[in-house]
Amino acid sequence: MTPKVMLKVIALASLLVALSNMLPSQAQAKSYQIGGQVVQDYDLNDYKYYKVKRTTPVVFLYANNTKKTRQLPKGTVVIGNKFKGSAVEKPTISFYLGQIDYKFLNKGRPKHVELLSASDAIGSRRPQDYQRIARPAYLPALSLGTLRQMKFTTNPNQDDKVYSQLKITSNGFAEFTRFKNPNAVNGDQRPQFQVKIQKATNRGNTRQLYFAQKVPGWGMQRVHQSGKLKYRLTVVNQHRPFRTDGDPDDPNTLFWSRYTVGGKTLVTIIGQP
After folding, report:
1. Is 164 exposed, middle or buried (0-12, 13-18, 19+ CB in 10 A)?
2. Three-state SS across the chain?
3. Is 251 exposed, middle or buried (0-12, 13-18, 19+ CB in 10 A)?
């Protein structure tokens, strides 16, 4: 299998596994069976979440080597890791911007110029501005929040097909995207719909997301006649993880989890060896 369409997603997963930096030791780790393989805890994603305690500046780097300072609003949730520092290094926090909402990331971006900060970690010398929090209820466990409707192939001459995507951003938006060409997906494509998550509950296998407006085609249910909680999207973890393997030229093994989202089966990466 040559999952070219998944290169950016794989890169994101690899980056944030490195950011977590707090994985359990082999002696302490639990093990699971995924696709007939014994998988240890430390092979699964271990993300940490931080809330911005005050409006905080961050620097965006673009592909044309220009920089722009943006302000992270108070209350923004980011994924990253704090470093306490040492005798020679100051305390810092590294965090990843790729899962913040599309509009924030692309506001003021020079036309046709890629935002490099969205594919790498950026750092701050003011770690005291970021408070460690538990994973927000709207975010799936072990996942960056990007769930895709996909068809996998075992043909090394074909790419996996990606038909649609639900991206649950770290700062509480749901972004819905349908791809015109499932064989050549641009993961940075502008979503057709971006909706603020007004409320989220997480009980057992089921996560309920509430919205003020309906997104067509995603199985939302109307539960109230007015207000900000009119529509509900049900996200169910099937607890049926599986693995995919690359070909000899691209030997990437990935672990995935299946979710039912509004009646559709979507998948998300949960780890890699």
Report:
1. buried
2. CCCHHHHHHHHHHHHHHHHHCCCCCCCCCCEEEECCEEEEHHHECCCCEEEECCCEEEEEEECCCCEEEEEECCCCEEEEEEECCCCCCCCEEEEECCCCCHHHHHCCCCCCCCEHHHHCEEEECCHHHEEEECCCCCCCCCCCCEEEEEECCCCCCCCCEEEEEEEECCCCEEEEEECCCCCCCCCCCCCCEEEECCEEEEECCEEEEEECCCCCCCCCEECCCCCCCCEEEEEEECCCCEEECCECCECCCEEEEEEEECCEEEEEEEECC
3. exposed
The CA distance from 4 to 16, in Å, is 20
Query: How many CA atoms lie within 13 Å of 171's alpha carbon, on the beta-carbon side?
Result: 18
Give the C-alpha distances (Å, rounded to integers) separating 52 from 117, 132, 188: 18, 9, 25
pLDDT in tens, 138-177: 999 999 999 999 999 887 777 889 999 999 999 999 999 9
Whether residue 210 contacts residue 199, with contact meaning beta carbons closer than 8 Å, is answered with: yes
Question: pTM for this one?
Answer: 0.84
Residues sharing a CB contact under 8 Å with residue 248, sequence separation 6 or more, in sequence order: none
CA 118 to chain centre: 12
Measured CA angle at 120 (ends 114, 121), to 5 deg: 135
